[in-house]
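#help-structures
NK: newbie question, is this the right format to request a structure? protein is Pantothenate kinase
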Amino acid sequence: MSVYVGIDAGGTLVKLAYWKDGQLTFSKMPSTEAQSILDELRQEVNGEAICITGGKADWFAKDLPPATKRMVEFEATTLGVRELLGAQNPMVSSFVLTNIGTGTSIHYLDEHTSERATGIGLGGGTLMGLSAMLTGVHRYEDIVEGSLRGKRGAIDLTVQDIYVDAVPPIPGELTASNFGKAWSNREAAQKKDDQLAAITGMIGESIVTISAQIAVQYSTNDIVYIGSTLSSQSSLKQVCSSYTKIRNKIPHFIEQGEFSGALGALLAVANSDVSQIRKDLKNRWILR
């Protein structure tokens, strides 16, 4: 039975997409815990059946068979996104792709082309760093839970806060100034959960603002968001979704989108089994 492996080696996480015994499986682990998996792959899988991509691809590739294929991260990600989107929402063919990793990379894709539009140094790394600095919370799960409980009203200044007792010329719920109340309302701004919510809101709204501007530039209304920080319950996903709609664009979140790079790498070496893998993307994969 054919075995193929796609690896997306990032700075924080290593993600795998592998095809074995007719089954497509996705898995991820911290980069610091990936060595044992790579040792197993080196012993069990031929290099011709492995493709690695990502920022740490060269670092991890030295522990893989010499014949391991390398793939440019952008190419692997766009290939994986096209396949996942085709399986889940084939009507979306022209879109901005916003990949929220440690930072954020923004691309434009249509049926024939793909190009990098811009990038921003805000992303999951910013969320972790600012949360640790301002609140002392270091675990990602605790950051997500706290931000979901928190309220931004005591910290962020909205347009409606400025137009007191008046109808503002733009939607009142828009943020006029992130953390704009914190200096004058210090006691109310001390709750960690509220601070986590405000941090998440600032990052999400900044990413959406730039993504929406790129969407206008390329004359599309669809923005596809991928990344490990966009778990089903994360407040960052909620911010991106709601704020994209406020900006009159349509947000899309791909199931297993965080594995786009690993999937693209897998498809690059899957040869004759690509058609079966495409079928499995619709309803027959395992997440571990």
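mod (FA): yep, format's fine, and the tokens are attached above. The chain is about 40% helix and 25% strand.
NK: thank you!
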